[in-house]
Specification:
- With 90 residues, the chain is an alpha/beta fold.
- The protein is built from four helices and five strands.
- Strands 1-2-4 form a three-stranded mixed sheet. Strands 3-5 form a two-stranded parallel ribbon.
- Strand 1 and strand 2 form a beta hairpin.
């Protein structure tokens, strides 16, 4: 896995071969979501494309939506923007 500095150099160099890096970071986020003590968070899906991490799925409350976002943000350490597309079931 690339370090933060290596990723920044790659981003600044204009190279567009981020698929492997994106998959690595997405896998890291998925692993952190699976560690959550909250069962609804474990079912959240994520995808990282062009520096944007998108969270998808359904959760039972806005609290779980925010918890999932915080877990994802902590896992990637600010390396990507988070687009929280989680739907709250009513």
């Amino acid at each position: 896995m690339m370090s933060h500095a290596e990723r920044n150099r790659t981003l600044c160099s204009g190279r567009r071969d981020f698929d492997t890096v994106d998959q690595s970071y997405a896998a890291l986020v998925r692993a952190e979501l699976l560690k959550s003590p909250y069962l609804p968070i474990r079912a959240v899906s994520c995808r990282l494309d062009d520096g944007v991490l998108t969270l998808t799925g359904k959760v039972p409350s806005y609290y779980f939506k925010q918890v999932a976002q915080r877990v994802a943000m902590d896992a990637i350490g600010g390396l990507a923007a988070v687009d929280n597309q989680l739907q709250v079931e009513r």
